[in-house]
Every structure is written in structure tokens, then in C-alpha cells.
Amino acid sequence: MGSTVQFLLLLLTLGRLLTPLGGVPVPVLSIQSPDGDMIDCIKREEQVAFTHPLLKDHIIQERPTVIPSAGKKEEDALYGWQVWHQNGTKCPEGSIPVRRLISHENETVISSNAGDRVTGGHEYAIGRMYNREQKIYGTQATMNVWQPKVETYDEFSLGQLWLVSGTYEDSNINSIEAGWQVYPKIYYDYQPRFFIYWTSDAYNLTGCYNLRCGGFVQTSRAIVVEGAISPTSVVGGTQVELTVKIWKDQRLGSWWMGVGLGHVGVLEPVGYWPAFLFNLQTDYAARVEWGGEITNKHTYGRHTTTQMGSGYLPDSGFGKAAYICNIEVALSENDFQPLQNLTVGGSHPDYYGAKKSNNPELGTHFYYGGPEQLYPGHATAIHLTWDSSLLYLCFCLLLLV
Ligand SMILES: *[C@@H]1O[C@H](CO)[C@@H](O)[C@H](O)[C@H]1NC(C)=O
Ligand SMILES: *[C@@H]1O[C@H](CO)[C@@H](O)[C@H](O)[C@H]1NC(C)=O
Ligand SMILES: *[C@@H]1O[C@H](CO)[C@@H](O)[C@H](O)[C@H]1NC(C)=O
Ligand SMILES: *[C@@H]1O[C@H](CO)[C@@H](O)[C@H](O)[C@H]1NC(C)=O
Fold first, then answer.
1. Residue among 108, 110, 111 whose CB has most ligand 2 atoms within 8 A, to mutate
2. Is the CB of 86 under 6 A from ligand 1?
3. pLDDT, tens only, 53-68
């Protein structure tokens, strides 16, 4: 009798070892990236998005109804800017590439979604539309990518865009975000990575980086969300640019995101956020912003030395400072137009600035970044003026929450 039980237990144990725990999908192919990442090609219908309760019976949308103003697509143009592309192997049709969440520095499993989006210490230098509330159906922007120095492992530095509705007062900030980010605490290294984020309750209970919890549905087999970007921009040399576009698909209801290297041209639809993730079921966003953000943890009892953008101030201009250029906004469905009324500002102008510029080759654009200088003597900082004190007040409110 006892031995039968033992045998059954053994069978159970074996069964557990052989079947993937907790429904973790078995990759159809794994690709070794030169930076140590392992990229698993997962069957599209087995991606983590479908663990979201609202997505249980979701039928995947293969492609957006339209890709507004996308260039002609040659498949090879989609590859080449993410480090894992250097392997040369691609994920097969019907699968998506996913970064395996194991640190290549010390083999530990990366904790799922421990990013910090809400505690204090966030500092911004951004641009936004002058008009406070609008019906916004999408935005597109091109940003040059850098590898800013991040002082401590739990600080981050990023360049991104935001599409936002709702307010902090009502705890219903709905936000969709995408760009590049250095964040050792969650990625376990100091490389800039292509990232996305969403929340529907002001970063409280919902919110998710990349594919680390259910929500964003990926369709592309060419792009790894949270894949490292290389090369990056060189001071006085080549500027490596990423174009990110997010738009509301009026027919399918979803917010689609596409990305491409360089100025516009070829954009690969990476995937979408289904409309029902968001609790403000409007078919538009009310605000849009672009720019840089860092976290300042005051680790050594002083302001962090973490760089935003390239680490250079906006006055350094092209070839040195980080920029967001060719900014476009859709104020009606799929009607992307160069942004007319850009306004810029920062939460900590002693350290990080944003400044408009008018180089016609860059469309609507601004430079951003910092810090002004390292220690001591930020007293000599150039104070960037705000286009209006109202904006400053808004920032203070934002930072207080
Ligand atoms: C590409 O990935 C495969 C599978 O992990 C690996 O065997 C191969 O060595 C890699 N090739 C290169 C050039 O890194
Ligand atoms: C691996 O690295 C992480 C982040 O640096 C650290 O928190 C963790 O303790 C390390 N684990 C080991 C076994 O060294
Ligand atoms: C976050 O959600 C919890 C649970 O619903 C709620 O009690 C709390 O007030 C929320 N916090 C904020 C800042 O909205
Ligand atoms: C831009 O802003 C100005 C106020 O500075 C306003 O008068 C104008 O109507 C705005 N233009 C557009 C296209 O929103």
C-alpha cells in the first residue's frame, strides 16, 4: 500500500517536472543574444497577455486596421537595432520573441514587475501640447537613444512618450507609455532597453512594464519588448533614433503601438493594448507628453548624479543633447499632423532642462537632459523659464501625489 502511494507521488512529481509550471509556455525556439539575454520564441496565443482576466477569451487582432502614414515595409529593415538581432536567427511565423526573465549577471530569476512608478523622487524634463485638454487619437515622435549613467541600481533614466487621460485626484490616471529606459533594478544591467508601460488607476493596483503581466498583446515577431538597443548615439557622431507611434484603432478599439529605427519610414506594429484594459472607455486620450524622466533616490544624502538623456544640457544642441523630434499628434482619427503648440518645462530645472529649438530638419522638436553639472555648485544653473506658471503648478501637484 505504502509503496503504491510512493509510486503515485513519484508519478505526480515527475508529471510536475515535465509539464510547465503554472502554464509557463514552452518556447518553440530560443535565441542566444550576444549580451547574455535569452530570447524565447513563444507561440503568440500563449503569451502572458492572456493571463489577464479580461483577455481570457480574447481573439488576437493580427494587425491594425490601418498603420497611419507608415512607410513601405521591407522586412529586413525591422531588424538590426536590438542586440539580439545580431544572432541572425528570427522567431518563426506565429511566435513572438520574449526576453527570458533570468539575470545573465548572476542567474537569478528576475522578480516580475517590481518597477517603481509612483514613489517620490521622480524628476522630469518634458514637452507637451499647449492646449491642456484635447481629443487625442495618437502621437508619434522620434527620439535619439543614449546610455545615460544611472548612479544606483534602483534609479532609472528614460526617454519616452505618454498618452494620458484621467486625474490623480480621481485616482483614474490612464496612461500608455513607450520609449527607452536604463533601469538596473528590473533589467539587471545598464543597457538602454525598448520598453512599454500602462496603468488604468494612477499607478496604484494596475500597471505593468513590458510583457511582465497581462495586458499588452504582442503581434510582432521582430521586436523584443525590453530588448536592449545597440548601438546608441555618439556625442558628435551618429545619432541612433527610434520612432515610436501609438494610435487608436477606431474599428478594433485598441491602442496600437509601432516602432522603427530612424526617422519614420518603416514602422513595425508591435502589438496593442485592448480598450477594455482602461477604465476611461473614451476613444481618445486627453493629454500627450514626450521627454525624459529620472528617479532621484538621494542615496548619498544628496541629489543623484544620474544622467537624463545624454547627460548634456539642452543648450548643447544637436549631436550632444538628447532630443525628441518630428513630434506629431492626431487630433482626429488617423490624421497625424506636426504638433503646432509645443510647450516645454521641467520639474527640477537646476538639474535637468528642456528647450525648444527650430532646426527645420527635425520638425517640431526640443532638447532635454542634464544634470547641469556634478557636485558642487548647481547654484550656477541656468533656470529654464516656464511657458506659464500654471504648468509649474501642475507639475508640483503631480509630484506631490
Ligand atoms: C544564436 O542562438 C542560438 C540558439 O541559442 C545559439 O546556438 C547560437 O550560438 C547563437 N548564434 C550567435 C551567432 O550568437
Ligand atoms: C543578483 O543581482 C541582484 C541585483 O543586483 C541582487 O539583488 C541579487 O541579490 C543577486 N543575486 C545573487 C545570488 O548574487
Ligand atoms: C489604491 O487601491 C486601494 C485598493 O483599492 C485603495 O484602498 C487605495 O486608496 C488606492 N490608493 C490610491 C492612492 O488611490
Ligand atoms: C496655440 O496656442 C495659442 C496660445 O499661445 C493659441 O492662441 C492658439 O490657438 C494655439 N493654436 C493651436 C493650433 O492650438
1. 108
2. no
3. 999 889 999 999 988 7
